[in-house]
Amino acid sequence: MSISDQIQNYYENKVVDAINRIALPKGFNQEQLTDLACLALNNLPNRYYRHEVDLAFYMSAQEHTEIDERVEKAVMFAIDYLEKSLKKAN
């Protein structure tokens, strides 16, 4: 097993969850949803972990809240950016 199979970025699942909750109902197609994920993740810091339970244990409730807020802002920024780009293209 390689090292890359054993590490993950904490923000990836958070961003996917936020996109499913916020962007999916707006009617974006799968390609656009993937673009939104990339845009949002590029505006967030990296936070890698090996075992999610360890990361969750060492984070305070305030840190969890701050991360959720950062993710929501990044996804909203990505949606706004993509919607503006689609309008320019039409």
Keywords:
90 residues, mainly alpha, two-stranded antiparallel ribbon, 69% helix, globular
How would you describe what is shown here?
By secondary structure, the chain is mainly alpha-helical. The chain contains four helices and two strands, in the order E-H-H-E-H-H. Strands 1-2 form a two-stranded antiparallel sheet. The longest helix is centred in the last third of the chain and has 29 residues. It is globular and about 45 Å long. The model has no long low-confidence stretch (mean pLDDT 92).
Strand content: under 5%
Order of helices and strands: EHHEHH
N-to-C CA distance: 47 Å
Helix content: 55-70%
Low-confidence stretches: none
Mean pLDDT: 92
Name the strands of the widest sheet in spatial order: 1-2
Please tell me what the overall shape is: globular
Q: Helices and strands: which structural class?
A: mainly alpha
Total domains = 1
What is the C-alpha radius of gyration, as a whole number of Å?
A: 15 Å
The largest β sheet comes out as: 2 strands, antiparallel
**Number of helical stretches of at least 4 residues:** 4
Question: Could you give the count of β-strands?
Answer: 2
